[in-house]
CARDB domain-containing protein (Candidatus Nitrosotalea okcheonensis), 132 residues
Amino acid sequence: MKKSILAVVIGGSFVVIMVFFLIILLPIIPVSEKYSMSVDPIIIQDEMGTETHVAIRNTGTNALTNIVVEYGGATKPDVIPILNPGEKVSLSPPDGSSLNEVRVTTDQGINVTKEYRTPASISFVGNSGFGG
């Protein structure tokens, strides 16, 4: 009889501890949406001129299709046919873009409009890219 009570107490304690850790740790575990993306338009203006690029990453669990990137002004938008989960594309706005904001839409109903940002630290390595 004493062994069965001890087994119930140990088993119950184990269940309580597991439930406690699930409740505490569950918000930490990232939950990815089916269709999601991040858009990061960057502009750097200095004595050498203006450098711009737009980074688009598929942060969802499914592929995004027909991603249309509009730069504003009278420029033709870029179209990315497919962007798989985790994949990232970096684009350069064409001449004539307004360089105020970027609008990105997909077949899956995602619609993101973001203003260009200037990185906090600007460190160039020759002409090879951006720091930050």
